[in-house]
Write a structure and sequence with these properties.
The structure is a homodimer of 345-residue chains.
Chain A: E1 12-13, E2 37-44, E3 48-49, E4 53-56, E5 60-62, E6 74-76, E7 79-83, E8 89-91, H1 94-107, H2 115-128, E9 140-149, E10 161-171, E11 182-187, H3 205-219, E12 224-229, E13 234-235, E14 242-248, E15 254-258, H4 269-281, E16 287-291, H5 296-304, E17 308-315, E18 319-328, E19 331-334
Parallel strand pairs in A: 1-4, 11-12, 11-18, 15-16
Antiparallel strand pairs in A: 2-3, 2-4, 2-10, 6-9, 7-8, 7-9, 9-10, 12-13, 14-15, 14-17, 17-18, 18-19
Helix pairs in contact in A: 1-2
């Protein structure tokens, strides 16, 4: 018998008998409180995908020799479910997350799955957890699809057991400062990703190495690192966000720039949406919208000349976060977040 | 009250009431069967290191939002306990592992600890598990100290909860082929590590990205990848092993070469021992022992000229593994593993 594909129609649901009290919105800390349930699907190399279950939120029981605890067989996605103006629950471009999750899975030697089937399961999960989707500008239910290797053993090889699961957390702003501009440190003493590496995949492995530099940057008053690459100081991304810069040229035309998908940055869904919206909505006589390489030196020079209009980060968790300062080599590059730079057609 | 340091004297031991039957040596698969107990110490940012415990081997109960499952807050060491000629149990250079584990912990924003105290705990653990230390050439008890972030939450920040634990597995040869020469693929289509990255730390994050290329190499008959770096094709390491080459020069003198500790390779304990032994035992009139950069092209050219005497990998799990073939760009570089290259003083 060939291994079974992921099949949403097999879902079984066991609802909690002890539903949680909803937290008031002002008490929501990003990713700290969770809904009542967890969605899980086990996979084995031999049998393929098993029966999807929604059960009361519970701890995972893992052998201490499980591969995800030793060799980082783990990847995830970040998605959000919102209430629309009629109160209906909508997920934002989940198909993009499913595509990316499968790309990550392939690179991490973990099993792939039918993204449409998993989206069906997520929709069922949202029906069960409906009351946890908050209302209000900037509030949403953050969804965390996760895939981990669950084979037991210390030999380093592709997992023959895995667990796909989904948990969800009602959230407001990602940064603890709230919906306020963030300050970044342009970092070249550590490197997040490199050519032919895994920086373009949403693997846990891309995060652990960024925390110690993030702590260093925090001591200097910055909430995140702007990761540079190479002697040229190419700008890549912010770890939790992709990054955009708006410049005005000498002739008065303007440019919105973000680094290209060169394998070293995460192909963000919000990045993609931002580019699509900018190309659709900004006046092409006034604006050019470019995915191109740019260096921290270009940003510094143009800021010095008064040509840097705005800078912002994009990400599912961070949404669109204005950047008002970037420190590089002890000097601050200031961006003004109070302009009305983007006037749509 | 300041956070408590790791204190071995606080250890509590609860022995199993259902001891496992020992497997016969020929049934030992690397890292597949474990001893009766697990050593654990919890850490919190507030209280520091808690009471170390040795209890019956058991699963870990982890909230599905635990940081080690999302952001790869996980690192480990590999050590071995052997029986000496008098049957006494000895660990091999554990102080080196403790140093490296603390370096890894610092880089991964996980807590550091007093390595001497942890070694005392490991010695206690070995007293409890004595019957699992096998006898015989190439057999040992593989020890796996592990440190994971156990804080619950999806914000990406330094863990304020962690778990240090030790499990152990009686082992024979690492490679399933047994104590036989291995064939490598020299790989340049994927890159393991980068300057200013984390390739020199024993983080789980360094392993996940190597498996998909390892599977590709396996389809071509190779058991491991020899990771190249840069357009020059610099040789770095093998993921599970450091790598050494022995050359004979035109004037008949010989050279033992291994790549230098440039931040891109793991500073292996067996690598270090091999260098120490080679420097102490090989005749310096005949041999030079060098940590220097070398490229796959140099190895190929010198093999073509008959100047490649031997190649081997070193690692705690792999011990010293002869390499009899390296495929690069579809061509095979053969090494002869049956010479008596290394005649000690």
């Amino acid at each position: 018998m060939s291994p079974a594909p992921l099949d949403a129609s097999k879902l079984t649901i066991t609802k909690t008998t002890t539903p949680k009290e909803l937290l008031p919105k002002e008490k929501l800390v990003f990713g700290k409180s969770f809904t009542d349930h967890i969605l899980e699907v086990e996979w084995t190399k031999e049998k393929g995908w098993g029966v999807p279950t929604i059960t009361p939120y519970h701890n995972l029981s893992l052998n201490p020799a499980t591969s995800c605890l030793h060799y980082s067989f783990e990847l995830f996605e970040g998605m959000k479910a919102y209430r629309d103006s009629e109160g209906k629950i909508r997920t934002f471009r989940g198909d993009k997350n499913m595509e990316r999750m499968n790309r990550s899975a392939k690179r991490a030697a973990l099993p792939t799955f039918d993204g449409e089937e998993f989206m069906k399961l997520i929709d069922k999960f949202l029906t069960v957890e409906e009351r946890f989707v908050p209302t209000g500008y900037g509030y949403s239910l953050y969804l965390r699809p996760t895939l981990i290797g669950t084979n037991v053993g210390l030999g380093v090889s592709a997992p023959d057991h895995a667990l796909l699961y989904l948990i969800a957390s009602p959230v407001g702003p990602y940064f603890s400062a709230g919906f306020k501009p963030v300050s970044l440190e342009a970092t070249d003493y550590a490197v997040r990703a490199w050519p032919k590496g895994v920086g373009a995949y949403k693997l846990g492995a891309n995060y652990v190495s960024c925390i110690e530099p993030q702590m260093q940057a925090a001591t200097r008053g910055h909430s995140q690192n702007l990761w540079l690459f190479g002697e040229e100081g190419y700008i890549t991304e912010v770890g939790a966000m992709n990054v955009f810069f708006a410049f005005v040229n000498e002739d008065g035309t303007k440019e919105l720039v973000t680094p290209p998908l060169d394998g070293m940055i995460l192909p963000g869904v919000t990045r993609d949406s931002t580019l699509e919206l900018a190309r659709a909505k900004l006046d092409p006589k006034e604006w050019s919208v470019n995915e191109r390489k740019l260096t921290i030196h270009e940003v510094k020079e143009r800021a010095d000349k008064g040509e840097l209009l705005e800078a912002f980060g994009t990400g599912t968790a961070a949404i669109v976060s204005p950047i008002d300062n970037i420190e590089f080599n002890g000097k601050n590059i200031k961006a003004d977040c109070n302009r009305e730079t983007f006037v749509v057609k």
